[in-house]
Amino acid sequence: MKLTSKGRYAVMALVDLAKFNNINPVSLRDISLRQGISLDYLEQIFSKLRKKEIVQSVRGNQGGYILNKKANEIKLTNIFDAVDEKVKTVQCKKESKKGCNGKPIKCLTHNLWDELENHINEFFEKKSLEDLIKDNIERRI
Q1: How far apart are alpha carbons 107 and 100 in whole angstroms?
Q2: What predicted TM-score, i.e. pTM, was given to this entire model?
Q3: Residue 105 in 3-state DSSP?
Q4: Which residues contact 40 (CB under 8 A, 6 or more apart)?
Q5: 138 to each of 10, 20, 60, 124, 134, how far by Cα in Å?
Q6: What is the C-alpha separation between 80 and 21, in angstroms, rounded?
Q7: Nearest residue to 35 via CA among 11, 3, 65, 7
Q8: Neighbours of 139 (CB within 10 A)
Q9: CA 4 from centroid of its chain's CA atoms
Q10: Annotated domain spans of the chain
Q11: Which CATH architecture has domain 5-140?
Q12: Model confidence over 94-109: pLDDT tens digits?
């Protein structure tokens, strides 16, 4: 199982945005500098986030991005979905009768990996941007 940098960076950038969102729109340049993420890459990510209405852009001299919802309403699964990130522990499709190994039956450990995928996705469904901000503050104390 692998979570790509696109998914991780989208979460990092949105936590940064949520942390600074309450004052003014946040520029991608500021997020890029604080988080060490390429500005070009952030532009690609935020284009997808904007299309899925997780963020909105604000034009003008003090422009940037703001969250479209409260931080506690944005779950990690929403973010992963917006950037086309899928958490998969098996390569085969769930509805397929064939296994990942190309054989007509699924491997002996298929149900184990399938169960793990369900736990991971449930975990991400429960975690919001607000949870991550609180976790970060509590760890600094």
Answers
A1: 7
A2: 0.84
A3: coil
A4: none
A5: 22, 17, 35, 20, 6
A6: 20
A7: 11
A8: 7
A9: 10
A10: 5-140
A11: Orthogonal Bundle (1.10)
A12: 666 666 666 777 777 8
